[in-house]
Amino acid sequence: MVKVSILGATGVIGKNVAFTLARADTVDEIVLFSRPQSIEKAKGETFDMYDALAAEDIDCKLTPSSDYEDLKDSNIVLITAGTPRQEGMTRMDLAIPNAEIVRNYAEKIAIYAPDSIILIATNPVDVMTTIALEASGFDKTKVIGIGNHLDSLRLKAYFSRQININSSEVHTRVVGEHGEHMVPLLSSTTIGGIPLKYFVRSVDMDVPRLIKRLRKAGNTIISKKGATEYGPSFAISNLISTIITDSHKVLTVSTYLNGEIGGVSGVSLGVPVVLSKKGVAMIVPIHMNDYEQKKFVDAAESVRQVTEEVKNHFNY
């Protein structure tokens, strides 16, 4: 039996992840966990989802709850709860209030679902990954942030639409911070098996413009509709499905580093990993040019600084 619990399930991301997972029909039970004052909304979400799932003959069990006992036997516990990002805010502006929420939930997960994998979606996700890791006491392979998975998907889509080519032909990756200090690995990007640096000589492609757009993608969406919704929800569902199906795909997530990439240690950053039902099965070594290496180290220092500020605030 596969069980996934979502903390913050009445929020935009939480409920969308729940419905996307239920529709995939690979999960037996989804716990929609909310604060006691939001439990009626959680119940309403499950009723609505059941109506939709009936149209596709899907029998996934949906459990609205505010009781930590219901987290027991979860394979994955997703934390989406936190103060939502507003237009103009950086992810780092959310660090202190969200760290308190994530720390509390991670401690509870360690008690009620000690064998689970913790997946972090709360921003700033790289900082929150370290907070959850330390609060839970879990092995670092079992605490994972969504990291740069969504950024990588966005960049893949930008290249695909720019040159009108199927997205399956685009192989690219973004590492570092899920935020301003993200690092697109253009040196290893290929399109149809051709390195990007050669491909752009034959087509009209403004790569710097695409990267600028990528860095502002979240704020652009928030300014127009109030919140990011489908992109993050599907990216998170994709990560969960990869884990529970033991697919061993290489995806870019936030994980705690001990020198595996670029000599960076003591901080959580987005890097390519092999995901399995046990969590991070392997951190995949990558080649970066000098510029990318410098930016990766800069990202590490930026995230490290905020992480330390948060930990000092709570006297960790």
What is this structure, in a nutshell?
43% of the residues lie in helices and 20% in strands. It is an alpha/beta fold and 316 residues long. The relative contact order is 0.14.
Explain what this protein looks like in three dimensions:
This protein has helices spanning 12-24, 39-54, 95-112, 125-136, 149-163, 196-199, 207-215, 217-225, 230-244, 290-313, and strands spanning 3-7, 29-33, 61-65, 76-79, 117-120, 143-145, 170-171, 174-176, 182-184, 190-191, 194-195, 250-258, 265-276, 279-283. By secondary structure, it is of the alpha/beta class. The strands form four sheets. The chain has a six-stranded parallel beta sheet, sandwiched between helices. A three-stranded antiparallel beta sheet has the order 7-10-11. Helix 1 links the parallel strand 1 (3-7) and strand 2 (29-33). The chain is globular and about 55 Å long. The model has no long low-confidence stretch (mean pLDDT 93).
